[in-house]
């Protein structure tokens, strides 16, 4: 395959990528949300040149971008590579007349979801009632809370909000609800273990990112302590360096791996994480915290990986920027169907494209 052009359509929050080959066929992908306009610059100035070289295996392009541009290793390079990688998957699916999930070995047609709250400072009763109402409306059988201050050095928005929030949710949610708590790296090891015991006693099923993600040894210490009283630990959404992922998986740093398909450098690289994790008995569910096209990509991912966690993340906030594509995912009975149209099964919203900042790199 040889590409003719790579185009970007960017806002501050979202950036679509369109790759076109020499025959005029094209595919749509997306970079990671947020600061997406900066990612578009990185894509054209740093990443695109590698992608224009002839290649036989489209799934290897993101790896080559990251390897060859090693002087620029960092999140914006990985995000740019993800935009190209996901567009190549869409192009391959459209050429084959198959969905991305089918190309990758689809095994499931619908995916169970967990409702993921992004509100960290709402009054406890308001938040608990809000989440229960969403359960009743959409049928979610699992919920994730985001209490505490991200990487907040053991701080809370006000004293005991996290404890009160977990307790209120345990009382308010439907009986049998699967409860996940994500503290976004807020805790020291000592506080993380203390809170892990508190969560376990109140029926929490999964404890996410207890310590700052770059402190791998701290997360490992918390995971081992929590394993002793039966609370699984999850993490990995921020990680994009493969040797770190290998260390996390091989060393049982977490029980559940959570790669972000667009932070890590694309669908291809995230699939490799899932394969390595499954081989070592670990479960996987991607980080898909909003209902932008990353949510669609997460459905494809969960449809084909070998050892998925029972639920995929579904952001519940009214992020209008995220609804920049068509058709939107429909949620019924706490589940969503995996798109079966060729490629990803979405197209960017025409209004978004018309307003977006446009960029193009051409293969001359």
* SSE succession: EEEHHHHEHEHEHEHEHEHEHEEEEHE
Distance between the termini: 15 Å
**Which class do the helix and strand fractions yield?**
alpha/beta
Q: How much is the radius of gyration in Å?
A: 20 Å
Structural features, described:
The protein is an alpha/beta fold. The protein folds into 2 domains: 109 residues, Enolase-like, domain 1; 236 residues, Enolase-like C-terminal domain (TIM Barrel). Helix content is 39%, strand content 17%. The chain contains 12 helices and 15 strands. The strands form 3 sheets. Strands 4, 5, 6, 7, 8, 9, 10, 11 and 13 form a 9-stranded mixed sheet that branches. The chain has a 4-stranded antiparallel sheet with strand order 3-2-1-15. Strands 12-14 form a two-stranded antiparallel sheet. Strand 7, helix 8 and strand 8 form a beta-alpha-beta unit. Helix 2 packs antiparallel against helix 3. The radius of gyration is 20 Å and the shape is globular. It starts with a strand and ends with a strand. The model has no long low-confidence stretch (mean pLDDT 97).
Set out the fold topology.
Layout (H helix, E strand, L loop, with lengths): L2 E8 L4 E7 L4 E5 L5 H16 L9 H8 L6 H22 L3 H4 L6 E7 L7 H15 L3 E4 L15 H12 L5 E5 L6 H13 L4 E3 L7 H13 L4 E3 L6 H9 L5 E2 L9 H13 L3 E2 L8 H12 L7 E4 L9 E2 L8 E3 L9 E2 L1 H6 L1 E6 L2
Parallel strand pairs: 4-5, 4-11, 5-6, 6-7, 7-8, 8-9, 9-10
Antiparallel strand pairs: 1-2, 1-15, 2-3, 4-13, 12-14
Helix pairs in contact: 1-2, 1-3, 2-3, 5-6, 7-8
């Amino acid at each position: 395959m040889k590409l003719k052009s790579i185009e970007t359509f960017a806002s501050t929050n979202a950036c679509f990528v369109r790759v076109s080959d020499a025959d005029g066929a094209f595919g749509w992908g997306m970079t990671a949300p947020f600061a997406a306009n900066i990612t578009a610059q990185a894509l054209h100035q740093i990443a695109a040149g590698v992608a224009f070289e002839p290649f036989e295996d489209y799934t290897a392009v993101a790896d080559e971008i990251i390897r060859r541009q090693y002087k620029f290793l960092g999140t914006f390079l990985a995000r740019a590579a993800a935009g190209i990688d996901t567009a190549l998957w869409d192009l391959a699916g459209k050429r084959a007349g198959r969905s991305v999930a089918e190309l990758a070995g689809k095994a499931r047609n619908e995916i169970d979801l967990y409702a993921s709250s992004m509100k960290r400072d709402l009054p406890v009763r308001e938040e608990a009632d809000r989440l229960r109402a969403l359960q009743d409306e959409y049928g979610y059988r699992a919920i994730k809370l985001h209490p505490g201050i991200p990487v907040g050095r053991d701080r809370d928005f006000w004293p005991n909000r996290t404890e009160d929030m977990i307790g209120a949710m345990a009382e308010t949610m439907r009986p049998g609800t699967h409860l996940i708590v994500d503290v976004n790296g807020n805790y020291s090891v000592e506080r993380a273990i203390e809170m892990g015991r508190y969560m376990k006693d109140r029926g929490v099923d999964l404890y996410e990112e207890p310590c700052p993600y770059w402190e791998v040894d701290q997360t490992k210490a918390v995971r081992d302590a929590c394993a002793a009283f039966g609370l699984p630990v999850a993490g990995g959404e921020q990680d994009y360096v493969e040797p770190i992922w290998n260390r996390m998986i091989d060393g049982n740093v977490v029980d559940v791996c959570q790669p972000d398909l667009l932070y890590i450098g694309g669908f291809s690289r995230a699939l490799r994480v899932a394969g390595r994790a499954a081989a070592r008995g670990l479960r996987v569910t991607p980080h898909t915290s909003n209902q932008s096209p990353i949510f669609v990509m997460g459905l494809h991912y969960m449809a084909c990986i070998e050892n998925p966690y029972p639920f995929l993340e579904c952001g519940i906030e009214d992020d209008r920027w995220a609804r920049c594509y068509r058709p939107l995912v429909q949620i019924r009975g706490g589940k969503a169907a995996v798109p079966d149209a060729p490629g990803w099964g979405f197209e960017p919203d025409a209004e978004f494209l018309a307003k977006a900042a446009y960029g193009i790199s051409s293969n001359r």
